């Protein structure tokens, strides 16, 4: 097919030299695919290299603690990926003797592995004819064939998967899958693609009909909610500090944070008393406090925006369970907390 030939020719001349493209080891391919979920290559590459160096085999990763894995993952976001990565590593190492499932159907059973990831691993590591459909593929197919079915609708997911499966090169599924993803990432970009040099321009419906900027179509996301976070950075004269581990489901599960109090709005310097924490946290002990940032630090997540204040609480002596400030780096924290830790000068307290 002309589409396939032009695509793979473009790929042979334009593909980036990435480490996971120079191996058929399913562990490395799986690792790269999990890291690159919702993460661009330039951000994910150093994390991939760090994981490969720290955990060169599936057994090394399986034998690590979750805290160690989360710490190495810190800054990538969507931490459920890291927890699932660790769970799956233990399953493969201890239940499957370190052998990865070698087909799409069985790969799909692994925790944290969906249709796209299973297809990518099956085709790249095991040469199975399994078409990948990610954001880049949606964009290429939607524009080239002029499809306006929303890509995040049930019907759209089925339609694009069926189309990709009909197009995939059955002799070279790995090359085709990587070619169409790379083409979407580098040539058929979301904004202002250079259609003048595109090898597929002659058959592209979106280009012919002026729909490049409007395709693909995506249903609107759920409304973003605002939350107001107040972190209490409690430090005593011995340079001990309080950290809490987040438990239960939700964002930042099993990561560490300073004691957190939510408020209904952003609080000002003279409104610390509205947090109602004197008796609960300090139990009558004397303390001084000051507000680190009068303007909110806004941390944007996919479904909510966090308007954040850091309150510095100085106290003579903290109860048992506090940790030395110098040990903060040992604990995996959300990027919002780690940025504060890296910026704040604890020596001034």
From TrEMBL:
Catalytic activity: Hydrolyzes free adenine bases from 7,8-dihydro-8-oxoguanine:adenine mismatched double-stranded DNA, leaving an apurinic site
Family annotation (InterPro entries): A/G_AdeGlyc_MutY (IPR005760), DNA_glycosylase (IPR011257), Endonuclease3_FeS-loop_motif (IPR003651), HhH-GPD_domain (IPR003265), HhH_base_excis_C (IPR023170), HhH_motif (IPR000445), MIG/MutY (IPR044298), MutY_C (IPR029119)
Molecular-function annotations in GO: 4 iron, 4 sulfur cluster binding; 8-oxo-7,8-dihydroguanine DNA N-glycosylase activity; adenine/guanine mispair binding; metal ion binding; oxidized purine DNA binding; purine-specific mismatch base pair DNA N-glycosylase activity
Any Gene Ontology biological process: base-excision repair
Documented EC number(s): 3.2.2.31
Every HhH-GPD domain range: 35-186
Cofactor(s) the record lists: [4Fe-4S] cluster
Origin superkingdom: Bacteria
Cofactor binding summary note: Binds 1 [4Fe-4S] cluster.
Gene3D superfamilies, A to Z: Helix-hairpin-Helix base-excision DNA repair enzymes (C-terminal), Hypothetical protein, domain 2, Nucleoside Triphosphate Pyrophosphohydrolase
Keyword DNA repair annotated: yes
Keyword Ligase belongs to the record: no
One Pfam family linked to the record: NUDIX_4
SUPFAM superfamilies in the cross-refs: DNA-glycosylase, Nudix
The protein's enzyme class: hydrolase
Cited function: Adenine glycosylase active on G-A mispairs. MutY also corrects error-prone DNA synthesis past GO lesions which are due to the oxidatively damaged form of guanine: 7,8-dihydro-8-oxoguanine (8-oxo-dGTP).
UniProt family annotation: Belongs to the Nth/MutY family.
Cited PANTHER family: ADENINE DNA GLYCOSYLASE
Protein name as catalogued: Adenine DNA glycosylase
Species for this entry: Winogradskyella ouciana
Lineage: Bacteria, Pseudomonadati, Bacteroidota, Flavobacteriia, Flavobacteriales
Name of the encoding gene: mutY
């Amino acid at each position: 097919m002309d589409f396939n030939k032009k695509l793979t020719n473009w790929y042979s001349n334009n593909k980036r030299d990435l480490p996971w493209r120079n191996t058929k080891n399913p562990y490395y391919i799986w690792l790269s695919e999990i890291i690159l979920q919702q993460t661009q290559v330039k951000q994910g590459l150093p994390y991939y290299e760090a994981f490969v160096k720290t955990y060169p085999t599936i057994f090394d990763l399986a034998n690590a603690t979750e805290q160690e894995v989360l710490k190495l993952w810190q800054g990538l976001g969507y931490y459920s990926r890291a927890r699932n990565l660790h769970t799956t590593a233990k399953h493969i190492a201890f239940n499957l003797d370190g052998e990865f499932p070698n087909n799409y159907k069985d790969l799909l059973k692994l925790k944290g592995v969906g249709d796209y990831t299973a297809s990518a691993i099956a085709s790249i590591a095991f040469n199975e004819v399994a078409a990948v459909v990610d954001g880049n593929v949606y964009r290429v197919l939607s524009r080239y064939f002029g499809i306006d079915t929303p890509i995040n609708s049930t019907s759209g997911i089925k339609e694009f998967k069926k189309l990709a499966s009909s197009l995939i090169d059955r002799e070279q599924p790995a090359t085709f899958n990587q070619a169409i993803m790379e083409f979407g990432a580098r040539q058929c970009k979301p904004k202002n693609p250079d259609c003048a040099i595109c090898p597929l321009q002659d058959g592209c419906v979106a280009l012919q009909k002026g729909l490049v900027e409007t395709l693909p179509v995506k249903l609107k996301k759920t409304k973003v909610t605002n939350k107001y976070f107040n972190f209490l950075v409690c430090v005593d004269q011995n340079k001990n500090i309080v950290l809490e581990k987040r438990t239960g489901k939700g964002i930042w599960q099993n990561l560490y944070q300073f004691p957190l109090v939510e408020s209904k709005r952003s609080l000002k310097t003279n409104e610390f008393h509205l947090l109602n924490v004197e008796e609960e946290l300090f139990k009558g002990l004397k303390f001084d406090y000051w507000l680190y940032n009068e303007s909110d630090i806004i941390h944007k997540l996919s479904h909510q925006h966090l308007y954040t204040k850091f309150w510095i609480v100085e106290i003579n002596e903290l109860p048992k369970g506090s940790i030395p400030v110098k040990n903060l780096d040992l604990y995996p924290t959300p990027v919002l907390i780690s940025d504060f830790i890296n910026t704040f000068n604890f020596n001034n307290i």
